[in-house]
Amino acid sequence: MIVQTALLVGLVLFSVLAIVLRDLLKSAISLAVASLLLGIIFFRMNAPYAGVFEISVVAGLITVLFILTIALTGAGDEVRESRLVNWVFPLVFVAFIVIDALVMKGLLGKIPALASGGETGSFGDVLWKGRTFDLVGQIAVILAGVFSVLALFRKRDKHD
Amino acid sequence: MIILFVVLPLVVAGILPLLGKVSRRVVPDLLANATLLFLFVYAAVAGRPLIAGGPVLQQLSWLGEAVNIRLALDGFSLFMLLAVSLVGLAVCLFSVDYMERYGAKANYYALLLIMIAGMNGLILATDLFAVYLFLEVAAVASYALVAFGLGHDELEAAFKYLMLSVVASAFILASIAVVFGMTGSLDFAAVASALKELNAGAVVGVASAFFLVGFGLKAALIPFHAWLPDAHPSAPAPISAVLSGLLIKVSGVYAMTRIFLNVFGLTPALSMVLMSLGALSMVVAAFLALGQKDMKRMLAYSSISQVGYIVLGIGIGTPLGIAGGLFHLFNHALAKGLLFLTSGSVQQATGTRNLDEMGGLAKRMPVTAATNLVGALSIAGVPPLNGFWSKLIIIIALIQAGHPVFALIAVLASVLTLWYYLLMQRKAFFGKLNEKWAAVKEAPFWMTAATVLLALLCVGIGILFSSTVTTWIQPAADVLADGVHAVIGSWGF
Q: Which among A64, B189, B265, B376 could bridge B421 via Cys, Cβ 3.0 to 4.6 Å?
């Protein structure tokens, strides 16, 4: 329980850091740490596949992409934001925590416990047999991403 | 083979950029238009016999083994597929001439087809996560299409759109997680029957609120509309037509009504919330449209206002109200598609979207002016055009259901609509011809053909409204009016 609480607190803390830090590089690394903690939570909650994906893709691959982009864009990595944002985020965050603490416990009590068992079947079963239609959607998302990059980084023709 | 609605545009989108290396214009033009023509004919001709004996549920098999691709086609989804392929076809025809100046046509068609595939996938989906996934497919393609011109405004609008859309997705995903946590399932039928037995009103309320914010953002209902007046005008005209005519309706209104009416079941409280949001959007956006000088921005605000009518109609929850809302959805898709396309013709001819700089264009572009007038009068609800009948049905339904105040608001908003559209007509097309536009010519053939097609449909459906309602709208409205029973039992696998 203590480990779980520590992990959850760490997750929230690093997520907040990712938002409030001004330096983009530090912000990206905080996000990676948050995602690593989330991955560990997934493992501990009997969801190894989710954990593996969280750590390898989100903490690993995406962080590399972020850092690469920050390195490529170089100068001007200090984000300037209006003062309103500096005030609004902490306020909303505190309000959220308060509402969460007041409401969530009662709300969760109303949700019936699901039959346990975590992830049934092998990963292949889940992906290929359980969620096949999602694969079509994923192919479509990847196609959309590739063509978006091609479209947005094309040489401008006559239209300017 | 209803999976064709998703797979065909995807496959064509995949090969288009390759073929674009061989032929930069003719092959992409032909292939994209042929795909959409096929989908339209398939939906219009083969669709109704398919669902004559009740909803079609397909479980696909691959090499003899059943795979978990489940699709459902009923009156509501067929109606939406028809609207998507019809407006998609008109937009694709328009793009043949319009997109010449942007370059990278094959790439453009590929993204357009992926967006259509995404919308079709969402319409045919039978579970909540598939809804989310195909919502994202259509959205990712639309971000790039909004920014397709690569100018500063386009990129800024696309970024704003992306940011607010991500917030919408986060709310939708959070709600899906809550529903999965409660019911242990994502399947529409299983969720609907599990929710019926569960006594968890508060949690369902939280899930509904999240969905309302998420889909409200996607549908650009007021107060969730901030992105639309930037994103829709900045996109190339055919894309504005798809976004305003289809995307906000499929990923906002369709997904919301399918889940609220067929899965959660419409409660009186939810009905009141939907009607209030609809009425608010209708009025506020109409006032905002009045003050616009940018022609496409005025149309964008008008879209928010008209989505308000649709949500108001469906929100009543009575069979007549739902039928009115859906009929207005269809009419608005046609008319707003038409108006955005004609605004594209005007922009291409004059190089401006500013209404104050225009004037007297009807003398130089008679067909564009005439089709624009048809679209404007249709949305404003002038008889005998199609928009009149759908608004009339909504207002009658409101009075029948005992909401005279909402009915009065709907009538007054309609007067406002007529007002700003007449302003647009007067500033752009009538009056004295501005000297600057003495050399302006009518739009090229395919652009004119697409607008004439949509204008004829607006007039034709207005005249033949009763047969349109009985053939297409009523079966769709029946599915929604049936509530959760439409899904429970018949949609289970």
A: B376
Residue B216 CA to residue B315 CA, distance in Å, equals 13
Cα gap B148→B158, rounded to integer Å? 9
3-state helix, strand, coil in chain A (%, to 5): 75, 0, 20
pLDDT above 90 covers a percentage of chain A that reads: 29
**In this complex, is the C-beta atom of B125 within 8 Å of any C-beta atom belonging to chain A?**
yes
For the stretch A66-73, contacts whose Cβ atoms lie closer than 8 Å and that sit 24 or more positions apart, written own/partner, are A66/A28, A66/A31, A67/A25, A67/A28, A70/A24, A70/A25, A70/A28
Residues in chain A: 160
Is the minimum CB–CB distance between B465 and chain A shorter than 8 Å?
Answer: no
Domain identity same for A5 and A61 = yes
Q: How far is A32 from chain B (nearest CA, A)?
A: 19
Cβ B434 vs Cβ B358: under 8 Å: yes
Q: Coil, strand, or helix at residue B73?
A: strand
Per the structure, the count of domains in chain B is 1
Residues B367-393 have a mean pLDDT of 93
Find residue B32's DSSP bridge partners.
none
E strand or H helix at B68? strand B65-73
In the beta sheet, which residues pair with residue B354? Answer: B294
Specify the pTM.
Answer: 0.91
A99 found inside a domain = no
Range of the domain at A128: 120-160
**Cβ neighbours, 10 Å, residue B363:** 16
Residues of B in contact with A138 (CB under 8 A): 133
Would residue A54 count as lying in a domain?
yes
User: H-helix or E-strand containing B56?
Assistant: strand B56-62
In the numeric block, which tokens belong to residue B129? 């996560």
Mean pLDDT (chain B) is 90
